[in-house]
Amino acid sequence: MNRATSATTAVLTSDIPPADAHVQDVIENAGVYKTLLESTNAIPWKINWATMEFAYIGPQIESLLGWTPDSWKTVDDWVNRMHVEDREYVVNFCVSQSKAGVDHEADYRALKPDGSYVWIRDVVHVVRNEMGEVESLIGFMFDISERKAIENEMQRLNQELEHLSFTDGLTGISNRRLFDTRLESEWAHACTSGLPVSLIVLDIDHFKNFNDIHGHIAGDDCLKRVAGALLSVARRSSDVVARFGGEEFIVLLPDTNQETAYALAQSCAAQIAKLEILHGGSDVSEFVTASFGVGTARACERLSPEMFVKDVDRVLYRAKTSGRNTIALRDAEVMP
Ligand SMILES: Nc1nc2c(ncn2[C@@H]2O[C@H](COP(=O)(O)OP(=O)(O)OP(=O)(O)O)[C@@H](O)[C@H]2O)c(=O)[nH]1
């Protein structure tokens, strides 16, 4: 039994005249409330607004945060034992809400004596006098570490899920979904900036034969290595190298003119050649090659991004029908 209850018992056993029965009730109730308050899982507290001192802090502070109630005297003790990244926002928020007389709550990391932190949700009630002036603040600090850990894990899993939903499972590069999303935003950007957008669409030559001769696992490995080669060429942060499906890849080059796009397609072809992946089923080279379609457009042209992609895909088909292992341009003749 704690101090509050024994004090109550002492009062009850003394001789109190009937006229003071009300006082006795008050004392008894105060004892009950104190017992209830100090047996909750949260830390109750009270701050005197005029002095900014703690008029009361529950003994639970010791078991939840590791500080003795004696060491928790002023608002500074609360502020200084808050994670530095949370401090400015939380203090400013709590002060402004308190000044406005608005009940509020704030989450922050509270420091323990061993240097670790506990996530706290402080729920604050503003007490005002008859004049409407703030007199004190009373509240509870709840340990929300478990909830925060779950929230953080959920956030991490969501980010991972989002990343996976934009990644091609085999090659690890972006997938079509990410490409479509980025193309749409780059198209909108190009529409306002007036800058050109370029696309390179490429397809590995005679890949069916490659699989038939070298096996599907070698085929998968070939796709991964080609993806790596493309990534080594399109290196600007705004560039997107994506697997478009099967053995077809697409490279989005924002703010890029046709000349540069063509040069980049040449570099892609050179990097693929450099891999020297033996291809027993190709009539164009002993190594793996690809055919390329390159296109450049101004977003202001009467063209949707989807139509643009289809257009460049048709250009790639031209490269295929004109012998493979070549680069075809949307606005020019097939170039060897
Ligand atoms: N190993 C492997 N093969 C794939 C994958 N996706 C698609 N393919 C194969 O890629 C081949 C594509 O064949 P086609 O579309 O006929 O084209 P191609 O043989 O490359 O001929 P051209 O494009 O005309 O040069 C098919 O045999 C598909 O099975 C994959 O993830 N892994």
Automatic annotation (TrEMBL):
Domain of life: Bacteria
Residue stretches making up the GGDEF domain: 195-332
SMART domains: GGDEF, PAC
Sequence ranges assigned to domain PAC in this UniProt record: 104-156
SUPFAM superfamilies in UniProt: Nucleotide cyclase, PYP-like sensor domain (PAS domain)
Pfam families in UniProt: GGDEF (PF00990), PAS_3 (PF08447)
InterPro entries: Diguanylate_Cyclase, GGDEF_dom, Nucleotide_cyclase, PAC, PAS, PAS-assoc_C, PAS-like_dom_sf, PAS_fold_3
Catalytic activity as recorded in UniProt: 2 GTP = 3',3'-c-di-GMP + 2 diphosphate
E.C. numbers: 2.7.7.65
Record PANTHER family: DIGUANYLATE CYCLASE DGCM-RELATED, REGULATORY COMPONENTS OF SENSORY TRANSDUCTION SYSTEM
NCBIfam families to which the protein is assigned, alphabetical: GGDEF, sensory_box
Entry protein name: diguanylate cyclase
Species: Lysobacter soyae
Organism phylogeny: Bacteria, Pseudomonadati, Pseudomonadota, Gammaproteobacteria, Lysobacterales
